[in-house]
C-alpha cells in the first residue's frame, strides 16, 4: 500500500503534537498549538467523540480546552488525568464529567475555546452568523466536560530553552516520569508529586523513555547515541543493537524511540522495541531499523530495516501484537510485532512530520468503534490533521475446520486406493 489520499478524521485549528485515547470514555484526546508566538495560532487540548457509521470512522469535537500561551508538545494519560508537556513543565489536568446544571458556568469559563470548536465544526469563520445555532449546540455538548488543572512540576532545567521531550505514567499510576533537553530523568511519586529521582541520564536531549509494568526497569533514549536500562537511578546496562552487524559503525545510527509491549498469550512476558535512525542524512538515505529485545535480559532478538524514511514516533498496541511507526515525511506504517514484518503502509499520509500515534484500545468502549478491523491506529501531525488507519481482519479458517478437511482428504485417498486396488485394505 503506497501513496494515497487518506481522509481526515479531524482537522484542528493548530498544529497537533500529541494524541491519546481514553479507555474509560472512548474519547480521543489530541493537543498542540502555536506556542507563545503572536501568530494568531491558538494552543489547546481537544476532546473528540469517535463513531463508526456505515463502516467509516468520524470524529466530533465534544470539548476544547484553551491552554493560553502554552502548546502541549507531548502527554501521558492515566485515570482521567492528563500529564501535558508545556515548555519546561508538566501540567497535570483532570478530566471531569459535569452535571448539566453546571453547564452555564462552564460555557462562561471556557467560552473562547468552545467558540473555536464551534467554528471548526461549521466550517466557517466566527463571523458567519449562519452558524450561530451550531455554536450553541457545541456549547451544549461540552456541558458534561471540564478540564481542571491539579498540579504542575518543572521537568527540564535547561537555562536556554527548557523543553520537556517525553512523559510517562507507570502502569499502576504510582510514578510520573519525564525527560527533557537537559539530559535529566526526573521521577515523582504520584499523585503527591513528591520528588523521587533526579539524575543525569544522557549527554544532551532525552528522546524517549518507558518503564516496565513492575517498575523494576526504566529504559531511556538520548541523542548521545545511547539507550540505557536503569534500576531506579542506577545504570543497569547500555544496549547495543548492532553487535552482529559489522557494516554499521558506532555512530552511524542513534536511537529514536523505545516502548515496552506485551507478548500475546504469554502473561508477564515483555518485549522492548526500539527504533534506530541514521545520524546523518545522505543524498541516498540508508534504512532505519526496528529492533525487538527480550524484556528481562535485554538481549536483542530480532532487527529488521523499516524503510528509508526517518522514523519520528513509535507506538505498540495494547496486546503487543502490532507496532505503529510515523515518519518525518508524513508516512504511517503498522508492523507485526512478532516478525517485525510491515503489514500496512501509506506514503506521505500527512503533509509533514507525524508527531504522535495511538492505537485504539482493544477492549472497553473503543472495541465497538474499531468495527470489523483487526487493528486501528490514530495519527496526528504538524499539518493539524488527525487520521485513522485500519487493517481489516485477515480471514482465517478455524482450526477445527482445517482438521476436518485433512481427515476428509485422508479418508478420500484411502477409498480411492481401495477402489483402484481391491484388497488394499
Automatic annotation (TrEMBL):
Keyword Flavoprotein in annotation: no
WD repeat ranges per the UniProt record: 167-189, 199-230
PROSITE patterns (alphabetical): WD_REPEATS_2 (PS50082)
Chain residue ranges for the region called Disordered: 98-136
SMART domains found in the cross-reference section: WD40
GO molecular function: guanyl-nucleotide exchange factor activity
Keyword DNA damage attributed: no
InterPro entries hit by this protein: Sec12-like, WD40/YVTN_repeat-like_dom_sf, WD40_repeat_dom_sf, WD40_rpt
Localization (cell): Endoplasmic reticulum membrane
GO BP: endoplasmic reticulum to Golgi vesicle-mediated transport; protein transport; regulation of COPII vesicle coating
Bilayer-crossing regions: 397-421
UniProt superkingdom: Eukaryota
A GO cellular component annotation in the UniProt record: endoplasmic reticulum membrane
Compositional bias annotation for Basic and acidic residues: 99-108, 125-136
Membrane topology type: Single-pass membrane protein
One family name in Pfam for this protein: WD40
Keyword annotations of the record: Endoplasmic reticulum, ER-Golgi transport, Membrane, Protein transport, Repeat, Transmembrane, Transmembrane helix, Transport, WD repeat
Record's protein name: Prolactin regulatory element-binding protein
Amino acid at each position: 500500500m503506497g501513496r494515497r489520499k487518506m481522509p481526515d478524521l479531524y482537522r484542528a485549528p493548530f498544529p497537533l503534537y500529541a494524541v491519546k485515547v481514553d479507555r474509560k470514555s472512548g474519547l480521543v484526546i489530541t493537543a498542540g498549538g502555536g506556542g507563545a508566538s503572536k501568530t494568531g495560532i491558538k494552543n489547546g487540548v481537544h476532546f473528540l467523540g469517535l463513531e463508526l457509521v456505515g463502516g467509516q470512522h468520524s470524529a466530533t469535537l465534544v470539548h476544547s480546552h484553551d491552554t493560553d500561551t502554552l502548546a502541549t508538545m507531548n502527554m501521558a494519560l492515566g485515570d482521567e488525568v492528563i500529564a501535558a508537556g508545556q515548555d519546561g513543565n508538566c501540567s497535570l489536568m483532570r478530566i471531569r464529567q459535569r452535571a448539566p446544571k453546571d453547564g452555564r458556568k462552564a460555557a462562561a469559563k471556557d467560552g473562547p475555546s468552545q467558540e473555536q470548536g464551534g467554528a471548526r465544526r461549521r466550517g466557517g469563520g466566527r463571523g458567519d452568523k449562519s452558524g450561530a445555532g451550531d455554536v450553541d449546540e457545541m456549547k451544549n455538548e461540552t456541558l458534561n466536560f471540564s478540564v481542571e488543572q491539579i498540579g504542575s512540576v518543572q521537568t527540564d532545567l535547561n537555562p536556554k530553552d527548557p523543553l520537556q521531550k517525553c512523559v510517562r505514567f507507570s502502569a499502576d499510576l504510582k510514578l510520573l516520569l519525564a525527560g527533557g533537553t537537559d539530559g535529566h530523568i526526573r521521577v515523582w511519586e504520584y499523585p503527591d508529586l513528591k520528588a523521587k529521582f533526579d539524575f543525569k541520564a544522557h549527554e544532551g536531549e532525552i528522546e524517549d523513555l518507558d518503564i516496565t509494568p513492575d517498575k523494576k526497569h526504566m529504559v531511556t533514549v538520548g541523542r548521545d547515541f545511547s539507550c540505557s536500562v536503569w534500576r531506579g537511578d542506577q545504570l543497569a546496562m547500555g544496549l547495543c543493537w548492532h553487535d552482529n552487524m559489522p557494516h554499521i559503525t558506532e555512530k552511524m545510527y542513534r536511537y529514536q524511540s523505545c516502548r515496552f509491549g506485551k507478548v500475546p498469550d504469554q502473561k508477564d512476558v515483555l518485549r522492548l522495541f526500539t527504533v534506530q535512525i541514521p545520524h546523518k542524512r545522505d543524498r541516498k538515505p540508508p534504512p532505519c531499523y526496528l529492533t525487538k529485545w527480550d524484556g528481562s535480559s535485554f538481549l536483542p532478538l530480532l532487527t529488521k530495516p523499516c524503510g528509508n524514511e526517518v522514523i519520528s514516533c513509535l507506538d505498540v498496541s495494547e496486546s503487543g501484537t502490532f507496532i505503529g511507526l510515523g515518519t518525518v515525511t508524513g508516512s504511517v506504517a503498522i508492523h507485526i510485532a512478532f516478525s517485525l514484518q510491515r503489514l500496512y503502509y501509506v506514503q506521505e499520509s500527512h503533509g509533514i512530520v507525524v508527531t504522535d500515534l495511538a492505537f485504539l484500545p482493544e477492549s472497553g468502549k473503543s472495541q465497538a468503534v474499531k468495527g470489523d478491523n483487526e487493528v486501528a491506529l490514530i495519527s496526528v501531525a504538524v499539518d493539524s490533521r488527525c487520521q485513522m488507519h485500519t487493517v481489516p481482519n485477515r480471514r482465517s479458517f478455524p482450526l477445527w475446520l482445517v482438521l476436518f478437511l485433512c481427515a476428509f482428504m485422508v479418508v478420500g485417498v484411502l477409498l480411492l486406493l481401495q477402489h483402484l486396488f481391491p484388497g488394499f485394505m
